[in-house]
Amino acid sequence: MSLQRDALKSSAKLRRKKKFNTFSIFLCTFLFITLSLAGLSQIDRFLIKKIKISGERTISRAVLANQIKPRLEGRYFGLFPKNNAFIYGRRGMIDFLKTNILKIEEAEVSLDDLNTLSINITERQARLLWCKNDPKTCYYADGNGLIFDRAPHFSDGVFLRFEGGLPSEESDSYYVGKNIFPAEYIKMLITFRQRAEELLKKNFSDNWKASYYFLGEGSDIDLFFENGIGGKWKIMMSPRTEEGYSFKGNDSSGLLKPETEATWAGFGGDLESAEANLKVILSSEAFRGSADNKTEPLKNLEYIDLRFGKKIFYKFN
Fold it and tell me: Could you give the maximum distance between any two Cα atoms of the chain, in Å?
């Protein structure tokens, strides 16, 4: 029995020694390969030393370069330089630029050679102005309604303007990077504005241009028209009227949105109804009879109220 126990102990000891030797060989091999690759990764010919930037319009190249350089400094795991041309992280660089510089809509990152990083950007185009309750504090927004920069000044008629719907007490940083409400509804309002102008041109003249939307408390939206010589009137709408609906937003998920999400469901249908009703009223004999100023037929118009379905109200001064 003693000889058998000694044999078993000796066998177990040999197995442990074999496992230890195998692990040691694996560890040494891994360390050798890792350290060799780390050494190769630091060869000067493989390191990015230059940054070439193109496509910028309003963003300073120096600002972009200062944002990018820190991402090429330091080492991964304390071994591999982050500016190595093979492991610099192209996808991460693109995501970083689009997330941290909101003026950038698209970014392309590539290597001109092993020492030169090339970055081509496409800046967001300002399509809208979104203002607080006065036109002096405004922000540039793209065609989807994403606010991406403070607007220091603007010229009337250059951009379609939205006023209201913003918590007035918040700082600029609160609004930048947010949509006031979903992009599809912004596009519906832009389309409604275009079609309203077309109806006015068809029935009266093309002197009247839609200048801005005003988002009041609750569900009302007013679209204002101006003729450039002091004339001004508005179309009053209420696309959704359910209880709880409001343009007062929160910043959940970076989106200022209505308090009750379900109330957006009929937004597009309501705008279509408003468009149909506008077409009816502009072509009606009663309305055309009230607009009796031959030189500027709508000069004395104060409003057209489309908030009550097929009951359409209007007022001339």
Answer: 124
Distance from CA of residue 58 to its chain's centroid? 18
- Claim to verify: residue 79 and residue 166 sit in the same structural domain: no
Q: Starting at the edge strand that comes first in sequence, how are the strands of the sheet with 128-131 ordered? A: 147-151, 138-141, 128-131, 160-164, 209-215, 221-226, 232-237, 301-308, 311-316
Q: What is the pLDDT of residue 154?
A: 60
Phi, psi (5° rounding) for residue 118?
-110, 130
Helix 61-68 × helix 90-100 angle, to 10°: 130
CB 105 within 8 A of CB 123: yes
Beta-strand ranges (E) seen in 63-115 are 75-76, 80-81, 104-113
**Total-model pTM:** 0.71
What is the rounded CA–CA span in Å between residue 48 and residue 44? 9
- Does residue 265 share a domain with residue 170? yes
- pLDDT over 70 percentage in the chain: 81
Comparing 47-56, 68-77, 243-252, the range with the smallest average pLDDT is 243-252
How large is the average pLDDT for residues 95-121? Answer: 92
Average pLDDT rounded to a whole number, residues 193-204: 92
**154 part of a folded domain:** yes
What kind and span of H or E run contains 162?
strand 160-164
Rounded Cα distance between 214 and 197, Å, is 17
- Taken as a whole, the chain contains a residue count of 317
Strand pairing class (128-131; 160-164): parallel
Q: Count up the domains in the chain and report the number.
A: 2
Q: What are φ and ψ of residue 274, in 5° steps?
A: -60, -40
- H, E, C per residue of 16-41: HHHHHHHHHHHHHHHHHHHHHHHHHH
Quick check: is 168 in a domain?
yes
Helix (H) or strand (E) segment spanning residue 116: strand 116-123
